[in-house]
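REQUEST FORM: STRUCTURE PREDICTION
Request ID: SP-0412
Submitted by: Lab K.M.
Chain count: 1
Length (residues): 174
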Amino acid sequence: MLKGFRDFIMQGNVIDLATAVVIGAAFGAVVNAMVENVLMPFISGLVGAPDFDSFGVVWFNGNALQFGVLLTALVNFLLIAAAIYFVIILPMNKMIEARNRKLGAVEEAPEENIMLLREIRDQLKAQTEVTNPAFIASLVEAERQAEAEAAAKAEAEQNPGLLGKAKNMVWGKD
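STATUS: Completed
RESULT:
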């Protein structure tokens, strides 16, 4: 039993996940510091208040609908996303691109087999849609069923039956 637990803990994906959680928590502090100490003061300098909680308060039957709180959460989300993109993602992509240029790495083109398989798939799909008799028969049958349903509905409207006549009398249609 302990051996199984040890094997589970020592798997690569469990260790990787634990490492990612620890690094993510530590990095969250960096992102929050940037947003709270750099971006939000900048926004407050432009707008006049670092939060929008008091903005857009509507009273409805004695209850406050606070659209400003939602706006503050949305602005915080966008600022955090922008901070992560412009401070981490964009520079990392540039570094990777520069490293690949330096090493002379070229983007991998799909293998010839993969390209041929994609071509075959696309041709079979087009051929099935156009020339497959079962496909065409299913379309014809669906059209036939739709026409039969429309005819039955029209007939039911013309001959309402006893219940239909009673309804028409009640609603003044007859």
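NOTES: Residues 112-171 form one domain.
Reviewed by: T.R.
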